[in-house]
C-alpha cells in the first residue's frame, strides 16, 4: 500500500484536485472499505484524497417540512445517534447502528457506504424507501441524482471521475408512515448482510387501508433495489390474511441473489420472504402508532 | 515521499516524519514504540488495535496516521494515570478477565469509551460496546463480570 496523500481543506479545493487527478485519486472518507482494499492489493491508487478536513460535509440539518439534509461525511454513529434521524427516519438510524460495530460506525460515513456501492450497503434500503436525492459536486457544478439511479453494479456508481458525493437529501414523506430495516447475518455484529430488507407502509386515515408500501432490499442483486411489484400488492389494499405473505412472495421473485461465501441463492430467497414479512408487520405497527402529522 | 505529521498521543506531542500511507497503528507501534495496541487482522475485523480518537473507539489499523494530526489519541498506555490503574483495569485484574491478553488492550479502550458516556451500562450495552472486539480465548463472561463489578453509583 503506497500512495500520495491529498488532504484538501475545503470542498472547493477537493473538487479542483479531483478535476486534475480524476480516477488517479481515490476518495478516503472513513477508510473502512478503501484501506482494506488497498492493503489487500485489490485496488491500486496513485493518490488517496482524504476528506477528513472537510467539516463542511459533516452535518445533519432539518429543513422543516421539506426533509432532512445529511452531509456525506457524517459517520454511521452520528446518524444513528441523531435525534432528527431517529424521529424522521428511524429505519436509517437502525441501519447505521447495524454496520460493523462501534469502531467501524465511528469511522465509516453515510456517503462512503453509498459510494462504495456494495450490493450489501446497509444504508441503501432505507434511503431507497425515502427517495433520497444525492448531490454530486464537481468543479463544473452540482447535479442531483435520485438514489434509484445512483448504483450501476457492484462497486460502480454514476459518479463521474471528477465528482464527489456532497449531500444526501431525504424528502419528507406525507401522512402516516412506518418503516423499518432488518438485516440478517450469522451473528449480530461485524457482519455483512446475507439479506437486508427495508419496508415502509403508508396508511390512509384508517388503520386497515394501506395507501402505499415500499420495499427495498440489499445483498439480493448486483445493486440494492426496490421490489416494485411486491410493493404494488399492498397499494390501496385493506390488510387481510395472506396479504403480507403474498407481497413477500412477489418481492422475492424480483430478487436475483447469487450463491457466495455467506449464503446460497436458495437460502437468500427464503430469507427475503421471511424478512419481508417481519419488516412489513413492524412497519405496519409503526404506521398505526403514528398518530401525529409529519413523519416517523 | 515522507511528510511531517504531529500526533497527540496520551497527552504528549510527537513530531514525526512518516510515509503518508502508514496507518496510525503502525506508527504508534513502530515510531512511537507504544506496542500496547495490537495488530490482529489489520483489516478492521478484530478490534485488537482499538484506540480512542477524540474520545471515540476506532480501529487504528483503518486510520492513516497523517489524518489523525491534531486529534486526541488515547491508547492503552494512557489509561493508567500517575501510576494508578484505571478502575476498569483494576476490575479486570480482580476478576481474572484476562486469558492470553492479546485482545485486552482493545477491549479496555472500547469499555473506557462506553463508561465515559454511560457510567452504568446494562449487560446488553456492554455487549454492544464490545461487539467489535474478538477474544479468541472466548473469555467474555469474566469481562462482562468485571464491568458489572464496578461501582455504578453516580
Polypeptide structure, described:
The complex is a heterodimer of chains A (296) and B (154). Chain A is of the alpha+beta class. Chain A has a five-stranded antiparallel beta sheet. In chain A, strands 11, 12, 13, 14 and 15 form a five-stranded antiparallel beta sheet that branches. Chain A folds into two domains: 4-171, Uridine Diphospho-n-acetylenolpyruvylglucosamine Reductase, domain 3 (2-Layer Sandwich), CATH 3.30.465; 176-289, CO dehydrogenase flavoprotein, C-terminal domain (Enolase-like, domain 1), CATH 3.30.390. In chain A, a hairpin with a 6-residue loop joins strand 13 and strand 14. Helix content of chain A is 33%, strand content 26%. Chain A has helices spanning 11-21, 34-40, 76-81, 83-88, 90-96, 102-107, 110-115, 124-129, 228-232, 243-254, 265-289; strands spanning 4-6, 25-28, 47-50, 60-62, 67-71, 133-138, 141-146, 151-153, 156-157, 164-171, 176-184, 195-203, 209-218, 225-226, 237-238. The model of chain A has no long low-confidence stretch (mean pLDDT 95). With 154 residues, chain B is of the alpha+beta class. Chain B has two domains: 3-78, Beta-grasp domain (Ubiquitin-like (UB roll), Roll), CATH 3.10.20.30; 87-148, DNA polymerase, domain 1 (Orthogonal Bundle), CATH 1.10.150. Chain B is 30% helix and 16% strand. Chain B has a five-stranded mixed beta sheet, covered by helices on one side. Chain B is globular. The chains are: A alpha+beta (296), B alpha+beta (154).
Amino acid at each position: 500500500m503506497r500512495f500520495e496523500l491529498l488532504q484538501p481543506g475545503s470542498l472547493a479545493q477537493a473538487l479542483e484536485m479531483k478535476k486534475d487527478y480524476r480516477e488517479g485519486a481515490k476518495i478516503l472518507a472513513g477508510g473502512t472499505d478503501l484501506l482494506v482494499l488497498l492493503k489487500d492489493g485489490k485496488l491500486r491508487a496513485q493518490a488517496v484524497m482524504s476528506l477528513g478536513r472537510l467539516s463542511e460535509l459533516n452535518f445533519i440539518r432539518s429543513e422543516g417540512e421539506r426533509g432532512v439534509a445529511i452531509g456525506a461525511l457524517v459517520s454511521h454513529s452520528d446518524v444513528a445517534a441523531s435525534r432528527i434521524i431517529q424521529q424522521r427516519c428511524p429505519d436509517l438510524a437502525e441501519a447505521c447502528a447495524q454496520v460493523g460495530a462501534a469502531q467501524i460506525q465511528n469511522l465509516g460515513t453515510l456517503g462512503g457506504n453509498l459510494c462504495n456501492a456494495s450490493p450489501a450497503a446497509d444504508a441503501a434500503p432505507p434511503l431507497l424507501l425515502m427517495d433520497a436525492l444525492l448531490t454530486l459536486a464537481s468543479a463544473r457544478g452540482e447535479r442531483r441524482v435520485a438514489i434509484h439511479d445512483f448504483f450501476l453494479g457492484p462497486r460502480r456508481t454514476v459518479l463521474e471521475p471528477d465528482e464527489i458525493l456532497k449531500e444526501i437529501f431525504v424528502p419528507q414523506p406525507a401522512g402516516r408512515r412506518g418503516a423499518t430495516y432488518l438485516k440478517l447475518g450469522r451473528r449480530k455484529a461485524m457482519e455483512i448482510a446475507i439479506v437486508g430488507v427495508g419496508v415502509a407502509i403508508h396508511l390512509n386515515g384508517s388503520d386497515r387501508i394501506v395507501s402505499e408500501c415500499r420495499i427495498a432490499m440489499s445483498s439480493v442483486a448486483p445493486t440494492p433495489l426496490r421490489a416494485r411489484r411486491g410493493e404494488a400488492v399492498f397499494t390501496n389494499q385493506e390488510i387481510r390474511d395472506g396479504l403480507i405473505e403474498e407481497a413477500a412472495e412477489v418481492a422475492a421473485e424480483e430478487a436475483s441473489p447469487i450463491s457466495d461465501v455467506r449464503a446460497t441463492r436458495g437460502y437468500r430467497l427464503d430469507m427475503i420472504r421471511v424478512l419481508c414479512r417481519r419488516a412489513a408487520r413492524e412497519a405496519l405497527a409503526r404506521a398505526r402508532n403514528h398518530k401525529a402529522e409529519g413523519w416517523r | 515521499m515522507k511528510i511531517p505529521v504531529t500526533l497527540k498521543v496520551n497527552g504528549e506531542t510527537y513530531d514525526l516524519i512518516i510515509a503518508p500511507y502508514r496507518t496510525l497503528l503502525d506508527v504508534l507501534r513502530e515510531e512511537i514504540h507504544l506496542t500496547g495496541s495490537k495488530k490482529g487482522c489489520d483489516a478492521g475485523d478484530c478490534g485488537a488495535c482499538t484506540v480512542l480518537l477524540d474520545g471515540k473507539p476506532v480501529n487504528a489499523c483503518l486510520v492513516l496516521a497523517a489524518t489523525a494530526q491534531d486529534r486526541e489519541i488515547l491508547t492503552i498506555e494512557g489509561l493508567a494515570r500517575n501510576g494508578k490503574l484505571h478502575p476498569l483495569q483494576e476490575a479486570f485484574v480482580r476478576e481474572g478477565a484476562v486469558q492470553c491478553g492479546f485482545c485486552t488492550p482493545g477491549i479496555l479502550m472500547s469499555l473506557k469509551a462506553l463508561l465515559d458516556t454511560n457510567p452504568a451500562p446494562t449487560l446488553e450495552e456492554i455487549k454492544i460496546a464490545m461487539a467489535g472486539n474478538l477474544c479468541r480465548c472466548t473469555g467474555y463472561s469474566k469481562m462482562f463480570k468485571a464491568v458489572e463489578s464496578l461501582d455504578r453509583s453516580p
